[in-house]
Amino acid sequence: xxxxxxxxxxxxxxxxxxxxVNLDPMPKKQNQKQPQQAFVDNIRQAAPYIQLHCGSTVxxxxxxxxxxxxxxxxxxxxxxxxxxxxxxxxxxGARPQIEQHLKQSAAEIRYANGLRITDDQALVxxxxxxxxxxxxxxxxxxxxLVNAPMxxxxxxxxxxNFVTARPLGIRDGVDYGHTGEVRRIDATGIQQQxxxxxxxxxxxxxxxxxxxxxxxxxxxVATATAVALRADKLILLLEGEGLRDSRRRLVHQLSLxxxxxxxxxxxxxxxxxxxxxNNAIDSCRRGVKRTHLVSRxxxxxxxxxxxxxxxxxxxxxxxxYEGLRTATIDDVGGIMKLIAPLEEKGVxxxxxxxxxxxxxxxxxxxxxxxxxxACAALYPYSGGLAELACVAVHPDYRGRHHGDHxxxxxxxxxxxxxxxxxxxxxxQTAHWFRERGFKNSDLSRLPLKKRGLYNYQRNxxxxxxxxx
Length: 468
Description:
Layout: H1 35-53, E1 57-62, H2 64-68, H3 71-83, E2 87-92, H4 95-104, E3 111-112, E4 115-116, H5 120-142, E5 157-158, E6 163-167, E7 170-171, E8 174-175, E9 180-185, H6 187-195, E10 199-202, E11 205-207, E12 213-215, H7 218-229, E13 233-238, E14 253-255, H8 256-264, H9 271-285, E15 290-295, H10 301-307, E16 314-317, E17 324-326, H11 332-344, H12 353-358, E18 363-368, E19 371-380, E20 385-393, H13 402-416, E21 421-426, H14 430-435, E22 439-441, H15 448-453, E23 461-466
Parallel strand pairs: 1-2, 1-13, 2-10, 5-10, 13-15, 14-16, 20-21
Antiparallel strand pairs: 3-4, 6-9, 7-8, 11-12, 15-16, 17-18, 18-19, 19-20, 21-23, 22-23
Helix pairs in contact: 4-5, 7-9, 8-9
Catalytic activity: L-glutamate + acetyl-CoA = N-acetyl-L-glutamate + CoA + H(+)
GO molecular function: L-glutamate N-acetyltransferase activity
Family: Belongs to the acetyltransferase family. ArgA subfamily.
């Protein structure tokens, strides 16, 4: 029922997951900004996230394919992150380089369950490939940020035996030889290098206390490192396109529960995506705040993922939608208690208990320790439009991104309902919505039914956001 969707009010801090989209569905040539102004706008959008990520610890892993294709661009982006104060641990794979060494020596290439079977001959190829690749990566990083005032300063890179490993052994009758698994990460040693301002470079090799060398999965090394460091982010740069839903749309974010459900569902996923999701889930369960799955093939994808509001990859986090669900009739009292102070201040239009009970299915709530601490409502209209209304966060919980999580959930729900545009009416919190991609709109663009209910005495401003 669309009888009384009203307005939204909220005070929270910047979104942890930035969005950068063109919200005008029919941009006009005369409105196109000059390149200089576009640059200024982009800097303004990125600035809060530059500040947010400064001092954070990020573990980034990429395959050997990244080194063979346009690696200079990726290195430049990595150097830029370093200059912005992000503490970086890089973990590189080497599968294509190992394959090349094996082919040159006419050695047999064997896999089981997605893992290389590393016999003595294969281990020689692994050591040669990984060693050569590490030197190449260190050389590129030593160049620093190319064509920049600080280019001549270079970047300090630290490598070492930070990864202790053990043999995988014989599993399901398969002897994996020198293929191993992570036993321990020297988090203290890595932290010392990071505190000295160096980038730490790890490979897919691990060492045992008895001096043995093991071939490891780079993603496993990255996951274990992120967990040991309690990293703010784990970023997997992946081959191919990003994670898509059944309609081939990019999946922007998943809660831990949603990622687990995707793995358990009947949906067909490639072995690679099963592995990526399992690593992301494992890292989140073990304390990593956020894991990003990003396509390596997008130019500047790493920067777009970190410094634009929507990114270009898939974010997986246990914190997304934590305690967030669709409201039930039992939540009406809690919602009324939450929004009453805002109604008294005139920020929200008053809603009766009867109206809330009738429209409760439109609401999403965040509940903690039995109390409703945040809410928002979605009212669909025809023509792919919907209203975002009654956005509120309890004063004790503002600044913790609950409003952002609600907005993300509402946007995902809108995509599932084929809603293309969200609009909001507000009198006092326009800045919050503008910061999250809403643009000022004329009342004539609102649905006819909504215009008929518009309260001219309140003189609310309309804002619209295109859902991609």
